[in-house]
Amino acid sequence: MSDLVAVSYGALDVRDHSFGGDRHELLVVPVRPGSPLFLYGEGALLWLRLVDAALDESVFDESERQILTDMEQMGIVSRDVGHSARVQEIRGPWLSSPMHELVYSLLGWVAAAEEIDILFIKGPTLHAQGLRDREHSGDVDCWVRPADEIRLARAMQEWGWKPAFSAFTGTRVLHSLTLRVGDWGSAIDVHTWFPGIAMDADDAFALVSEKSDVRVFAGYDARTPTTDMHAIISALHDVRPLQGRMPTAQQVGKAGDVLRRGGRTVPSLVRDAGAEYALAAALRRAFPEFRLDLDNAAVPKDWAWRLADSPLHVYFEAIKLVPPRQRLRVFFRVLWPTAESLRSGPYGDDTTSTSVIRIRRAMQGWRLLHRAKSRA
Q1: What is the DSSP letter of 172?
Q2: Cα dihedral sign, 11-13-17-18
Q3: Residue 242: per-residue pLDDT
Q4: Using only C-alpha atoms, what is the Rg of the chain?
Q5: Taking the alpha carbons of 100, 104, 109, 113 in that order, is the dihedral positive or negative?
Q6: Can you tell me the distance from the alpha carbon of 99 to that of 95, in angstroms, rounded to the nearest whole number?
Q7: Angle at the Cα of 309 (from 307 to 310), degrees rounded to 5?
Q8: What's residue 291's pLDDT?
Q9: Are 293 and 280 within 8 A, CB to CB?
Q10: 299: which DSSP letter?
């Protein structure tokens, strides 16, 4: 006989939440790839006993031991008392969507297993900090160091997410890699920097890591930006150029409001992050007394392609951001994407052949070229 403990990559008590309904009591993520498990009745009671203390198998009767053996195979019970994911306390969800809260926890545990430092940005934390009125977000945003986004994406594939790789993945052109939603109901955006921050990507991650606090998601201690740092990230999201268009007055006003909510330390932190150029108009609204030195402010490198007014112009400007030694490979992948990239893109799915997807993409490219010639 040996001691048994409860383990999980995220666990929530949903008895007092509408998500549990009249039946489900606990929502538990296993420590091996799989879907969240609903526990109720005798199963929930047994698991909670192991949350309270490590117990020897001998204290259970034969039917209980069979249930615990099943739970061990599911990945929510372990014979390792020192298991890193041992659960010794379980709380109710603080997010309106318990499933989304579990995604935060799962991402944190998977990143830890891969030795990836991770921060969680935007989403319900902005609401908790008083920076936005809306509580729920449809996806989960995290931030890792450059190159770690691909490793994290590969690790999350085992849990059902599909990376939307492109020719520019792993370059400074793209600020995030999207992991398309699976059975969990929440897409994930894995950031490696944030548009509008002109400093080096590694330095930016270090700055945000330094300006972070602990926030608990389904039992996992996550790092999220402090209120002032988070206000800057949120404002940058509002003012980034999109499809050749600068932000509207309404978007600038919204960014100014969130910067003001961030507090008096925001202007100096904007300067530290090299975000003065991007946030100039919003800063003037939020802190009219703050003096901006835009003559020495660095223009974000991605502003050129974001302000491009056609897809072909976007590609032309984006290629400039790619180091010369990588340009040939990127250019080739723009013309001939991998099968994996095609299937995760706008023209593909899991049922259509790669050849058909390439034809669809080529036809769209031809239409864009024809349109560009017509304008010329």
Answers
A1: T
A2: positive
A3: 84
A4: 24
A5: positive
A6: 9
A7: 130
A8: 84
A9: no
A10: P
Q: Is the Cα torsion angle 82, 88, 94, 98 positive or negative in sign?
A: positive
pLDDT band at 350 (very low <50, low <70, confident <90, very high): low
Query: Residue 23: what residue type?
Result: R
Mean pLDDT of 287-311: 86
State mean pLDDT over 249-259: 97
Concatenating the DSSP letter of every residue in 1-15 gives: --EEEEB-S-EEE-T
User: Alpha-carbon distance 302 to 299, whole Å?
Assistant: 9
Please report, for the chain, how many H helices and E strands are present, in that order. Answer: 15, 13
Structure-token match 């490590």, residue found: 54
Element at 324 (helix H, strand E): helix 324-335
User: Which residue type does 271 have?
Assistant: R
CB 117 within 8 A of CB 191: no
User: DSSP labels for 230-291?
Assistant: HHHHHHHHHHS-BTTBPPPHHHHHHHHHHHHHH-TTHHHHHHHHT-HHHHHHHHHHH-TTSP
DSSP 295: G
- Amino acid at residue number 224: T
Nearest in space to 107 (alpha carbons), one of 190, 225, 175, 170: 190
Long-range contacts of 96-100 (CB under 8 A, 24+ apart): 96/124, 96/135, 96/136, 97/19, 97/136, 97/186, 98/12, 98/14, 98/17, 98/19, 98/27, 98/218, 99/19, 99/27, 99/36, 99/184, 99/185, 99/186, 100/124, 100/136, 100/137, 100/140, 100/185, 100/186
Task: Give whole-number Cα distances, 213 to 131, 197, 224, 228, in Å.
Answer: 15, 20, 5, 11
Long-range contacts of 361-367 (CB under 8 A, 24+ apart): 361/337
Query: Which tokens sit at 187?
Result: 């897409």
Is beta strand 139-143 parallel, antiparallel or unpaired with respect to 187-191?
Answer: parallel
pLDDT above 70: residue 152:
yes
* Bridge partner residues of 6 (DSSP): 77
